[in-house]
Design brief:
This protein is of the alpha+beta class. The strands form 2 sheets. The chain has a 6-stranded antiparallel barrel with strand order 1-2-5-4-3-12. A 6-stranded antiparallel beta barrel has the order 6-7-8-11-10-9. The longest helix has 78 residues. The N and C termini lie far apart (138 Å). The protein is built from 2 helices and 12 strands, in the order ααββββββββββββ. A hairpin with a 7-residue loop joins strand 7 and strand 8. The protein has 2 domains: 76 residues; 161 residues, Rod shape-determining protein MreC, domain 1 (Thrombin, subunit H, Beta Barrel). InterPro entries: Cell/Rod_1, Cell/Rod_MreC_2, MreC, MreC_beta-barrel_core. Keywords: Cell shape, Coiled coil. This is Cell shape-determining protein MreC. It comes from Desulforamulus ruminis (strain ATCC 23193 / DSM 2154 / NCIMB 8452 / DL) (Desulfotomaculum ruminis). Belongs to the MreC family.
Length: 286
């Protein structure tokens, strides 16, 4: 019995080797055609392989899309940062441009009026929170030669006067403050009056104590009269925009719109020395 099993195993081994050799012969690379069995198997598995190929390709495309979206998000974030940086640079350039224009105007004013008075440029660094439009603070003080009652102007016209000074700063009362008083006159007729602020927040002023028989009209220019000694004569103040009679019936009042935009002051000039009080500086429109 054992010998029969041994012959049987040897026979099976020889048969398997023979089948393997036949399979290798019929499936070798470079054959001209497939065996009938291979062709049948490939034909049967072809549609299934196509389905799996589409599924695999779809999955691959999905993965690539997710990766691509992440990459695009990062690129978009970087581009947005670059855009924000460029916008910031443009805003800064515009701010520097406007500041340069304002400083150039101050320099031209100083050079144009230097035969009349000497000036010191100063920056507005604060406003009184209790009187937002009436009092401003400048970055020049005693160490810069600034003293109380010095006039403050802009290239457009009168702004106010110094009312308090510390070593490094000074406070200015604007002409629109109700506590302000400026000796003024009508440029065309030389009729005098007193300019005072209406309310701190209004941005306007009024010329009071003008004789009733005086001819006042909208559009007339108001300048400093030099009376009182605080303000040099002839500095432009503003233009009349309305005329009314005072309640007493003895005087007229003219509402004046200042030439200087006192709501948006950033730089001003402080008149430190007046060389010739009788020499009128150029007025608005000259």
């Amino acid at each position: 019995m054992p010998r029969f099993v041994s012959y049987k195993n040897l026979f099976l081994l020889v048969l398997l080797v023979g089948i393997s050799l036949m399979v290798m012969r019929f499936t070798q690379v470079g054959r001209d055609q497939l065996t009938p069995l291979e062709a049948a198997v490939k034909d049967a598995l072809g549609p299934v392989q196509g389905i799996f190929m589409k599924i695999g390709q779809t999955f691959h495309n999905g993965v690539e899309s997710v990766v691509s979206l992440g990459r695009l998000e990062d690129e978009n974030k970087k581009l947005q940062e670059q855009v924000d940086l460029l916008k910031g640079q443009l805003y800064l350039q515009e701010e520097l441009k406007q500041e340069n224009q304002r400083l150039r105007s101050l320099l031209q004013y100083h050079e144009q009026y230097q035969q009349n008075f000497n000036t010191t440029a100063a920056m507005v660094i604060g406003r009184d929170p209790e009187n937002w439009f009436g009092i401003i603070t400048l970055n020049k003080g005693q160490k810069d030669g600034i003293v109380k009652n010095m006039p403050v102007v802009t290239p457009s016209g009168l702004a106010g006067r110094i009312i308090a000074v510390s070593r490094n700063t000074s406070q200015v009362m604007l002409i629109t403050d109700p506590r302000s008083g400026v000796g003024a006159m009508i440029q065309e007729t030389r009729i005098p009056g007193v300019l005072e602020g209406i309310t701190a927040g209004s941005g306007g002023a009024r010329l009071i104590h003008v004789p009733k028989d005086t001819q006042l009209s909208n559009g007339q220019v108001v300048v400093t009269s030099g009376m009182g000694g605080t303000f040099p004569k002839g500095i432009p103040i503003g233009r009349i925009v309305d005329v009314s009679n005072e309640p007493t019936g003895l005087f007229k009042t003219a509402t004046v719109n200042p030439f200087s935009d006192l709501h948006r002051l950033e730089e001003v000039l402080i008149i430190t020395t007046v060389y010739n009080p009788d020499l009128l500086p150029p007025t608005e429109g000259d």
